[in-house]
Design a protein that fits this description.
mainly alpha, 84 residues
């Protein structure tokens, strides 16, 4: 079953969407559906979800923002190694 979802997309998002879709020979709607599906799948299949609540932390939004914190830690580690 398909559903219709109507979105108002800001110009700053729509123009790049049009450009990438044209480069790929696809419609903006097809590309947006693929990107949305990938984002939803990543959220649904989050490998760290089983650890949420398993550890005590002083970071109150870790459950929702763990990808951001892990990414930032990796960036910081990479910068430290480059500067060593």
């Amino acid at each position: 079953m398909n559903h219709t979802l109507r979105l108002q997309i800001p110009e700053a998002l729509y123009e790049p969407l049009l450009k990438v879709a044209a480069e790929m020979g696809r419609t903006p709607e097809e590309l947006a559906i693929d990107w949305l599906a990938a984002a939803v799948q990543e959220y649904v299949d989050d490998p760290l979800e089983k650890f949420i609540g398993a550890f005590s932390s002083n970071i109150p939004d870790w459950a929702d923002q763990h990808d951001r914190y892990i990414g930032q830690s990796l960036i910081n580690t990479g910068n430290t190694e480059e500067n060593s």
